[in-house]
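RECORD CONTENTS
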Amino acid sequence: MRLFRHPRTQSLYWRQLFVTAGMVVLTLCLLGASFFSLSYNYARSQQGEEIAAKARVMSQLSLSYLESGRYMDIEDLQNDLDFQRLASFAAMVSDVHFLVCDTEGQVLLSTDDTLDGMSVMVSPEMTRRVMEQGSASWREDLNGIYTQRRFAVGVASVNPITRETVGEVVAVSTMASLDSMWQGFIGLFFMTAFVVLMIAFMVSSITTMRQVKPIREMVEATRRYAEGDFDVRMDDYGRSDEVGELAASFNAMAESLQQTERQRREFIANISHELKTPMTTIAGYTDGILDGTIPPENEQPYLQIISNESRRLSRLVRRMLDVSQLQAIDPLQGGVHFDICESMRRVLISMEKKINDRCLDVEADIPDEPILVLGDNDMITQVIYNLLENAAKFAREGTALYLGVTVLGGKARVTVRNIGETIAAEELPLLFERFHKSDKSRSEDKDGVGLGLYIVKTILEQHKERIEVTSENGVTTFSFSLTTE
């Protein structure tokens, strides 16, 4: 069974925020624990050395009294007021309590008033360590006499002459300063951690919001694209990072989708118009013959119109199939070269009747030597044929057509030129669109389907080339290049 999870907990914003906060908290905890451990051990070591030095001094003081033979038993040592005053003064100055003990760990003298009248014994284990090692440190509660364990340092009292150990001095600290330092550090750590965590939350929140906001806008834009609205554009917020690049790519994709959608609508509108015209003509004249509107003696011309329109409809469908097939071919894959000059000559021969019917002359600038170019021979021949046919169709009668090729910089440049009506500059980019025909050509060119130049552009794009067109003072020039060997 899957548990329900609130969508907010799965959002990129909250995930990023929680990850950042978790990393900050973990880092602070590790740093705090490490620093506390090091500082606490260092402070304890330093304090232990200081207390041990004080215990050694008291050991020397007590040893001088012991060496003088003035203290033969416990009562004498405890009743010696001078030594007690000295020990109490040393304890007050040193901020520790001293316990003067015999070799068994029995406390003979204490500067801690809370131990007056008590029989106090240092643990045998600690006494043994002091006797064996000369000094030792530990935490001690004196067998439950102290409510809390205290830091203690024991130093053996050794006769420097006989090297005999006559007792030990234990310096006991309440560790108040160390605990105070620890408490202060804990308070400072938590305060610093809180401030750092708040700053990290704010910075992470702002940074994550800047990262998530464009993504949310892209999600909303994608929904609108799915609904057919391609006018939405992303704001890159002046960023040059990956988010800015993503926004720019997203806008480029939107432009491409919008253009594709516009071309799709134009294609549907154009194909509907191109198919509707011949079909309407065929249906109208056929109905007129069948219902007797057109008398039998007049049927022949109308039957000829029906035949012509049927053939035009067939050519339209065939050209559309040709375009679909051309877009699936890679003419450069085989790396085959052919003679572009020979292809141009064949096109001129096949176009001879149409050129003569228009009373046109031909200026051919085709070298006798072969010019080998990379590509598909049949496809490039189709390009030259379509361009020359288009030039002959719209050339002014009695003028000359130009067809030539030159080689420059590893490229063979083919040029087709005619003299006729000047094409408006704003219409030049539209010449290679599917089913595009100018108003003048619609009235004069009844056989055209508006796909000839579109096929030219498609074939050249398959060859990784492009076609250029200019039209000035009635002279219209089409030119394209092909890679030579």
User: Anything to note?
Assistant: The first strand starts at residue 97 and ends at 101. The domain at 232-328 is CATH 1.10.287.130 (Helix Hairpins).
